[in-house]
Design goal:
alpha/beta; six-stranded mixed β-sheet; 269 residues; Metallo-beta-lactamase, Chain A; 28% strand; binds fe (ii) ion; 15 strands
């Protein structure tokens, strides 16, 4: 089965009295285009890996696209934008440094904006690329984190030292435990295979792998995940965890160096 044939992810959210549907549309090999829709059919989208599956989804659910938010400039998150806008005109919000045509720059300095009366906070979570933005909606308890964090893992370090990514991961870890994290790729199986091999003594990762495998058997995408679950079960968020430090024999290392070691091992996996 092709990834794009897997059913979209759905969840119902309560945005402080505003009913919202969260959706994640499978695109390309393993990308997810996330979005929110309200009861009146207005939709917000985060990233457009390709136009066709998103267009089909919006039409099938009779949604009017208001806004597109872009987490970072990699092609697999923006390639479908131009074509999608031809059939679903919408305001595009993206960091000015991404240089996307016809986009409105995001407010500077980690500010916020609103959609359908709901606040969306802008978080600088760079380190995967030179300019990564996560979008956090406190009222709905959801955060769209692009390629900074994945279930059981995190993005590759294409920009800057590991400290930069570690700082970004700490920002995500500091969100309330029940926050849903919506990430740009479905890498959970490989991430948990790595975690169980790298940390065979830690049953949390074996349990994570079992749950991801069950989702695969049921043809479900293992998403979204919560901050609380990932804080206890994502090695990239656990570089200051005593068991992780002990397992790696890095007792005197700083957390960012422990993180760098885990990230490096994952790249070589
Ligand atoms: Fe990326
Ligand atoms: Fe990506």
């Amino acid at each position: 089965m092709a990834f794009s044939d897997i059913s979209p992810v759905f969840a119902l959210l309560d945005g402080s009295g505003v009913a919202l549907r969260l959706f994640g549309v499978p695109c390309l090999e393993d990308n997810l285009a996330w979005g929110l829709a309200d009861a009146e059919g207005h939709a917000l989208l985060v990233d457009v890996p390709e136009a066709a599956p998103v267009d089909r989804f919006l039409r099938a659910h009779n949604l009017k696209l208001d806004r597109v938010l872009i987490t970072h400039g990699h092609r697999d998150h923006t390639a479908g934008l131009k074509r999608l806008l031809q059939s679903h005109p919408a305001e595009v919000l993206a960091h000015s440094r991404l240089g996307l045509p016809a986009s409105t720059p995001l407010p500077n300095g980690g500010g916020s904006f609103s959609w359908r009366g709901l606040e969306i906070r802008i978080m600088d979570t760079s380190g995967h690329s030179d300019c990564d933005t996560s979008f956090y909606m406190p009222a709905a308890g959801v955060c769209f984190c692009g390629d900074t964090l994945f279930a059981g893992g995190c993005g590759r370090l294409f920009a800057g030292p590991p400290e930069r990514m570690w700082d970004s991961l700490l920002k995500l870890r500091a969100l309330p435990d029940d926050t849903l994290l919506c990430f740009g790729h479905d890498y959970a199986l490989e991430n948990y295979r790595f975690a169980t091999q790298c940390f065979p003594e830690m049953p949390v990762f074996a349990e994570g792998l079992r749950q991801v495998e069950t989702a695969g058997v049921e043809k479900r995408i293992y998403a979204p995940v919560t901050v609380g679950e990932q804080s206890r079960r994502n090695p990239m968020l656990m570089a200051d965890h005593p068991e992780i430090i002990r397992a790696l024999g890095l007792d005197t290392a700083a957390p960012e160096d422990v993180f760098a070691e885990i990230r490096s091992r994952r790249s070589g996996f």
